[in-house]
Specification:
By secondary structure, this protein is α/β, with parallel strands linked by helices. 31% of the residues lie in helices and 27% in strands. The chain has a seven-stranded mixed β-sheet.
Length: 319
């Protein structure tokens, strides 16, 4: 790596930033975050960033609002300290689900977050598996939306012995495109579950479209939050004659009753990536398995810094 690059980490996911730096052969930048007694955040960048290509790694997890505010402050601190370019590396984009006006007077908070990041001084965004890829259009700066799909395919082939006899299932209509892409790459069938929601985080009814009889069902979604949908879907698939059910989600948010639901569920495994730290949850829920995607983000940083194309990462896992 050239010498005018600095990688800093927010407090949301220091392990990810450390792994990325190890892969890039860099030292993690020195930054101190303090919280005043009234809850205000203070960030101090402990080394010069003048003329440097700065990458700030911060995921939208844990205390989402604090993490977002910390990221904005860090971007601004680097920008006004004369950094040449500031790139926000956001493995899990906050507020991504609020991406459209689905009812009267609903906010489009993802657009607001995009405006805030641009106003803070971000020149470039690197993120992973946005809830809706149109969120890229909320920005007037370049956005690289990377995919966990190549790493997911690798995990399926290595860890599900009879993956050739599987059906990839989307738990809702919105994820159909994601699921057909994975099904095509594995050369297997796909199915769809149509669900009707009464209100957010509460599913009313589910209808399976497609055949899973005598097959291994692999549920694929971009995020697992309270896990109500996927646990409900697993029961539906087993009723429809599936032999085994796996769930694969990029972002394992696992809020509220998620871990207990997974422990009591019919899943063989619930597979997530480490866009959000999973170590604690894996201790409480042995069914949770984690795919490391730090090498994808590290390679995206290396390619961006060197002015190379990142499209190779859309279909390959860097070694």
């Amino acid at each position: 790596m050239a010498n005018n690059i600095k990688v800093f980490s927010g407090t949301s996911h220091p392990a990810m930033a450390k792994r990325m730096c190890d892969l890039l052969g860099l030292e993690l930048g020195n930054v101190t975050t303090k919280k005043f007694s009234n809850g205000e955040l203070c960030v101090e960048v402990g080394e010069s960033v003048r003329g440097e290509d700065v990458y700030i790694v911060q995921s939208g997890c844990c205390e989402v609002n604090d993490m977002l505010m910390e990221l904005l402050i860090m971007i601004n601190a680097c920008k006004i300290a004369s950094a040449c370019r500031v790139t926000a590396v956001i493995p899990c984009f906050p507020y991504a689900r609020q991406d459209k006006k689905d009812k009267s007077r609903a906010p489009i908070s993802a657009k607001l977050v995009a405006n805030m990041l641009s106003t803070a001084g971000a020149d470039h965004i690197i993120t992973m598996d946005l809830h809706a890829s149109q969120i890229q259009g909320f920005f007037d700066i370049p956005v690289d939306n990377l995919y966990a799909e190549p790493a997911v395919l690798k995990w399926i082939k290595e860890n599900i012995p009879d993956w050739r006899n599987s059906t990839v299932v989307s738990p809702d209509a919105g994820g159909a495109k994601r699921v057909t892409s994975i099904a095509d790459r594995l050369n297997v069938d796909f199915a769809l579950i149509h669900k009707e929601r009464k209100k957010a985080n509460e599913v009313a009814s589910m209808v399976l479209v497609g055949d899973v009889k005598e097959k291994v069902a692999i549920l694929v979604d971009d995020m697992a939050d309270t896990c109500g949908t996927i646990c409900h879907a697993a029961e539906k698939l087993l009723e429809a004659g599936a032999q085994k059910v796996y769930a694969v989600c990029t972002h394992g948010i696992f809020s509220g009753p998620a871990t207990s639901r997974i422990n009591n569920s019919m899943f063989e495994a619930v597979v997530v990536t480490n866009t959000i730290p999973q170590d604690e949850r894996m201790k409480h829920a042995p069914k949770i398995k984690c795919i490391d995607i730090s090498m994808i983000l590290a390679e995206a940083v290396r390619r961006t810094h060197n002015g190379e194309s990142v499209s190779y990462l859309f279909s390959n896992v860097p070694m």
